[in-house]
Amino acid sequence: MGNGVRKIILLFCSDPVVMAVLRDALENAGYLVMSAGDLGTAVDRLRECKADLLIVRPYVDSLTGHDAAIYLRNKCHGLPVLIVDGYLDDERLHDRAAIAMFAVFPGPFTAADFLAKVSSMVNKPAAN
Fold first, then answer.
1. Which of these, 19, 98, 96, lies nearest to 55 by C-alpha position?
2. Is the CB of residue 82 less than 8 Å from the CB of residue 118?
3. Share of the chain above pLDDT 70, in %
4. What is the domain partition of the chain in residue ranges?
5. At the fourth CATH level, which superfamily is domain 8-120?
6. Which are the contacts of 59, defined by CB distance < 8 A and separation ≥ 6?
7. Measured between alpha carbons, how far is 105 from 85 in angstroms, rounded to an integer?
8. In the predicted model, is pLDDT for residue 102 greater than 50?
9. b/e map 90-112, b = 16+ CB within 10 Å
10. How many CB atoms lie under 10 A from the CB of residue 59?
């Protein structure tokens, strides 16, 4: 992040272990991470700042990450979304993500691969 401006990532994950691992990787790479374990907190975090990227797991609490991401993107128009999971073998998840124009990053993956994907999304030129 050569221009000195830290990109803000909203990490929405209800699994505390996975959240801690992803958060550590992102913070060590220089991102400012706002975390949320439930939908209400995620909405509050979006009110606090303008996130550059939403990272969400396929399932959060009692709803799908896809549904949560659509709801949050409607609160913050144009927010890029990355659905991240260790294993995404369910074609329905891929189909729903494609329809909503979400990026899907299946695993297993390395921290370097994950950070490269995040960097490609937060540094992508805005669509007109």
1. 19
2. yes
3. 70
4. 8-120
5. Response regulator (3.40.50.2300)
6. 14, 65
7. 7
8. yes
9. eeebeebbeeeebbbbeeeeeee
10. 17
